[in-house]
Amino acid sequence: MAGTDLNALFLHQLKDTYFAENAILKALPTMMEAARADDLKVAFGVHLKETEQQVKRLDAVFRSLGEKPEGVTCKAIQGIIAEGQEIIEEFGGSDAGDAGLIAAAQAVEHYEITRYGTLIAWAKQLGLAEAEPLLKETLLEEENTDGVLSDLAEEAINPKAA
User: 123-132: long-range contacts (C-beta < 8 A, 24 or more apart)?
Assistant: First the structure.
C-alpha cells in the first residue's frame, strides 16, 4: 500500500492508532496509581486489559493487510496524555484530581472513538473484510469505557469533588 490513495491513508491512520494505543498502555498504570477512588482504579485496570487486547487486534489488522505492525508518532495522543499528566501534577491526591483524571481519560476515549469510526468506514469502503470486525470490536469497547467513565463521574466522582 504505497501512494496517496485511500489504502495508503488507511495504513497511515492504522499506524497512528497503533502508536496511540501503545502510548495509552504506558499511561494507564500512572492514571491507576494517581486515582483515589477505588471504582476509578478498577475502571482504569479493566481498560488496561482491554487496551492490551486492542493492540493485539491491531496486530491482526496489520497481518490481514500483509503489513508489519508499526506506529507513526501521534502528536494528538501525546498532547492528550500530557494534559492528563498536568492534571495529576496539579490536582493529584484530591477528589478534584479524580474528576480531572476522568476528563483526561474521556478525551483519550473520544479521540479513539473518532479514529476507530474512521478506520471502520475506510475498511468498509476498501473491502477489508478481515479488518472491519476487529476494528468494530475495539470501537464498542471504547464507547463502553466512555460510558463507564461518564457514570462514575456523574454518580460519584464529580459530586464528591464539588
Answer: 123/10, 125/6, 126/6, 126/7, 126/10, 128/10, 128/64, 128/65, 130/60, 130/61, 130/64, 131/61, 131/64, 131/65
